[in-house]
Please model this.
Amino acid sequence: MIMSCSRLTNNNLQPPSYTCTPKFTTSFLPIRLRLRLSPQFPCYKNSALAITNVLKTADSPNISSDLESIFSNSKPTILVSEKLGEGGLDLLRTFANVDCSYNLSPEELCSKISMCDALIVRSGTKVTRQVFEASKGRLKVVGRAGVGIDNVDLQAATEFGCLVVNAPTANTIAAAEHGIALLSAMARNVSQADASIKAGKWERSKYVGVSMVGKTLAIMGFGKVGSEVARRAKGLGMHVVAHDPYAPADRARAIGVELVSFDEAVSTADFISLHMPLTPTTSKVFNDVTFAKMKKGVRIINVARGGVIDEDALLRALDTGLVAQAALDVFCEEPPKDSKLVLHENVIATPHLGASTKEAQEGVAVEIAEAVVGALQGELSATAVNAPMVPAEVLSELAPYVALAEKLGRLAVQLVGGGTGIKSVKVVYRSGRDPNDLDTRLLRAMITKGIIEPISDSIINLVNADFIAKQKGLRISEERVFSTSSSGSPIDSIQVQISNVKSKFESALSENEEISVEGRVKYGKPHLSRVGSFDVDVSLEGNLILCRQVDQPGMIGTVGGILGENNVNVSFMSVGRNFRRKKAIMAICVDEEPDKDTLDKIGHIPAIEEFVFLNL
Ligand SMILES: NC(=O)C1=CN([C@@H]2O[C@H](COP(=O)(O)OP(=O)(O)OC[C@H]3O[C@@H](n4cnc5c(N)ncnc54)[C@H](O)[C@@H]3O)[C@@H](O)[C@H]2O)C=CC1
Ligand SMILES: O=C(O)C(=O)COP(=O)(O)O
Model:
């Protein structure tokens, strides 16, 4: 006879140990609460998902205080660490306490961050691993009011379950216009001539420029900014080629741009304009070797990131005249200190002004404020950088399955016998949908959450589910089985199987000796439909008692009677059997947690062969 009363957590994917203590734990209660819609945010239908998937952070020590801030009237706190447009600030203030603290030192940022639910930055704030560590689990969203997220440690954010969102569209035109401004200013020596005339000189022959018309411009990185620069350069009469290993050729063709290889781009261009992100692959991609491939006298514009250029190599190339001129808006270190590059007579420089137009700053401020508020309220942002993007319509369709997935994971893990580690979980989705139309990433994340949370201190969300599963050595495989009985719903059933483990409730083992629980959504609610090889049908609410007994009359009444006498309310009950008068499984959902004596009494009913109590 098996009885579970309290949960002892561990970190090694060992199932929970159960001991008979008088009082059942309520440690699962917040998890149930997290699945409810917050009454404060009625307009956000998907906040249940959000609260579960997005807001919770890994290893958060203060689940209850998080919940307080979500479910009570207290507002979240958003730290804005760099200047943000008023429109965005106004929007943030309607929802949160907004702390605008600019020019914080790394230490000051770390000391403030544990009091903040979200942080909004531009390019000047380094959001390092230390920041996530210092947040002690409270920081749920980092909003980058702009495009480049190279100043945010994405790996650390993911490990800590913190969502990172950016504002990828509102400054595109500003950056492109700045690129064109630098291109023209460089070609016609505008900055140098301006400084000269202000110094009282009149140097007309010194500042003879070069024409742009008919020249070849190579755009490196044909994304949003790169293609807008291309469009404008075409208007200046330039011949434009682009290099971007990931850009679709038809988009380039549509604006009359030829996509070429890296070498062809750099070796044929008179002007090279950089528009790729700074990543490990693009770091210092413009170096001595690449400069050597360029046409002598080439001119370079960088409105992307300083780090894509080896600045020392550029200085050498300028000194030899291999590169005639450079126009730089971005630098490896910002602001640059004692930079020979900035002081070079053939360099014009601006202090990272690409996105700095009034219009762009208002735009990114509103764009990021909407994304951060949405994320805090539970929406999965379309601009999430470190979480799978799930379109809103998919999200709302999958909402009841998300709850089902988490509960099945939670049930399955509690059925594992103590002492056995879990290594391999298989999820089978039965659906009439084409597999390509079924996005199961969210469901897999929730099953992972359901499995791992009861047996470790980690708090899992959509951001970190895969990472934590991998870290714990848990392999989750998925199978989609075509089912003809589909009634238009995206999924007929979800089955969670845990293999190579013992079960504390033997009847939960399938013919293949795997723990197997299966569920479906009925009337919009998660239901348990099968345990091992027994069919059952109970709504997954409250707590669950599973009993295996000899199939005989009076069992429902006997068990129901014991629960009733002890003031435990039964919400659902279902009996499944394989053969008449042989073995049957009784699944009983109860609102309250029965005390030890009540469970003892059930265990002592002679016909009951095994039973288990499970928190949902
Ligand atoms: N100076 C400033 O104030 C601003 C700078 N930026 C910088 O410009 C970059 C581009 O911005 P968007 O066009 O909005 O981003 P985007 O994501 O639309 O475009 C980036 C393009 O670079 C391409 N790419 C990636 N790796 C590449 C490689 N190795 N070689 C060539 N192309 C590669 C991508 O496929 C993508 O098409 C941002 O990452 C940011 O660093 C953006 C806005 C303002
Ligand atoms: O959006 C970007 O990537 C930018 O580089 C703009 O940076 P900023 O927000 O002006 O510090």
Remarks:
- The longest strand covers residues 424-431.
- Residues 146-148, 168, 171-172, 175, 220-226, 243-247, 275-278, 281-282, 303-305, 329-330, 352, 354-355 surround NAI (ligand 1) (CB under 6 Å).
- The chain has three domains: 77-166+362-377, 171-349, 392-615.
- Confidence is low (pLDDT under 50) at residues 1-12, 15-73.
